[in-house]
Amino acid sequence: xxxxxxxxxxxxxxxxxxxxxxxxxxxxxxxxxxxxxxxxxxxxxxxxxxxxxxxxxxxxxxxxxxxxxxxxxxxxxxxxxxxxxxxxxxxxxxxxxxxxxxxxxxxxxxxxxxxxxxxxxxxxxxxxxxxxxxxxxxxxxxxxxxxxxxxxxxxxxxxxxxxxxxxxxxxxxxxxxxxxxxxxxxxxxxxxxxxxxxxxxxxxxxxxxxxxxxxxxxxxxxxxxxxxxxxxxxxxxxxxxxxxxxxxxxxxxxxxxxxxxxxxxxxxxxxxxxxxxxxxxxxxxxxxxxxxxxxxxxxxxxxxxxxxxxxxxxxxxxxxxxxxxxxxxxxxxxxxxxxxxxxxxxxxxxxxxxxxxxxxxxxxxxxxxxxxxxxxxxxxxxxxxxxxxxxxxxxxxxxxxxxxxx
Length: 406
What we know:
The chain has 406 residues and is of the alpha/beta class. The protein has a domain at 86-161: Dna Ligase, domain 1. The protein is 36% helix and 30% strand. The chain is built from 11 helices and 19 strands. It has helices at residues 51-69, 103-113, 162-174, 185-193, 196-201, 233-243, 248-258, 287-312, 334-342, 367-382, 392-405; strands at 7-13, 17-26, 29-39, 43-44, 47-48, 75-80, 86-95, 122-134, 137-140, 150-161, 178-184, 203-208, 213-219, 222-229, 271-274, 283-286, 322-325, 346-348, 355-356. The chain has a 6-stranded mixed sheet, with helices on both faces. A hairpin with an 8-residue loop joins β15 and β16 (283-286). The longest helix has 26 residues, at 287-312. It starts with 6 loop residues before the first strand and ends with a helix.
């Protein structure tokens, strides 16, 4: 296969599926040129629990993406999720001594904000600047060129378990790939599905996957809060399998084809066929019964997300409402149920801002994969050699851990 120039690959290693998205940077923007997807084996709630199965899953997804795009994949931007992910806000202060603020001062302030106490088994994954304060002038988005005595950086710091990150790195490296950077999955999704206006007004992104529900709250153009809840669409599948007494594989198919999260939208006379276990004959069941299994569980997941947003203290700033994305968000009726739970506008988030295979990636399922390549393109355009990037030190440390431990 011929190797193309300026190719970026996003690798979304999820609980339900692993997806590789290949994009090419052009003069007009980003074109999606290949997608590979394979059911995930070896992950539970976003965390690797079986290295061999995870490696095989990544390998198959990457091979499919290579075949479709016609190019060789050597490095990826990888997404990370899981209940071990924690986010917190921090403040860094440095002296400027009355001169103009330059890029080095901004870097020092951001680095100062990273001086927080974290346990030995955790490591900083991302440091996300929110805003800056120059002397008493707050709300500054870009302080470079301003004069002042003191510079403060308000940042959001994301930390994760060292071993969980090591296992992701090990799995990707064993496929023969390098990791350019590791990105929190809901932040990647936000690149693809949120507009700049929504981030300015105030919006909460809920990326509802198979094993986790990832939350990111934005306001004034920056991240204010992140969280990962260890619940997702797999709970719905398990409930359907138990409630309708059908195998898990068939329960997943029924959820995708007939599932509805808002029972009042289901016609009362609609009937579906449900496979039985143990060689018994399939049964006809009212779709209303399926709805009554799905709705309470989905409402519980959304209520957990709502409580997390309330706990963060940002529930009153969400003028743009809620955006749902991820595989579980394709359920019929989920928008109506979420509007009932959150009492604010809700929409589904579809990837935008890219060209190429837009008809293929036009689904919330691919939001994280597309967001990873969009993040990668911004990273490359800002710092094509990868120098001076506040995230690269983490990647270097991870590579060092990999060499030391494995």
